[in-house]
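Hi all, posting the design record for the shared folder.

TITLE: backbone redesign
STEP: 1 of 1
STRUCTURE INPUT:
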């Protein structure tokens, strides 16, 4: 059975889901996470995220600077966050735990 959400209820639902994702911050219509990882962990995380992102047909931005890995999820072009993008962020959290062992 499918549940239909009105625009307002859908946004509330996504906001509630985002509060459960520790470490993620919202920047307009994108969410972002910065992690301190070594090069090996960054490479492993990137591969895991690619598999999940491909399955969800989404394209997160992953960059590496000065020992920090930054991940951005969302369109950033005025399009609201989708359920799939919030799901991707949750799956990224699973991948972070697998890669870091915590």
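Okay, here is what came back for every position:
SEQUENCE:
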């Amino acid at each position: 059975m499918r549940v239909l959400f009105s625009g307002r209820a859908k946004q509330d639902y996504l906001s509630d889901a985002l509060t459960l994702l520790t470490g993620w911050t919202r920047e307009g219509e994108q969410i972002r996470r910065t992690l301190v990882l070594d090069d090996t962990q960054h490479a492993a995380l990137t591969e895991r995220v690619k598999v999940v992102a491909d399955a969800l047909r989404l394209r997160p931005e992953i960059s590496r600077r000065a020992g920090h890995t930054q991940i951005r999820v969302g369109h950033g072009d005025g399009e609201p966050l989708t359920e799939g993008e919030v799901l991707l962020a949750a799956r990224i959290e699973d991948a972070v735990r697998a890669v870091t062992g915590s």
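COMMENT: The chain has a mean pLDDT of 86.
Let me know if anyone wants the other runs.
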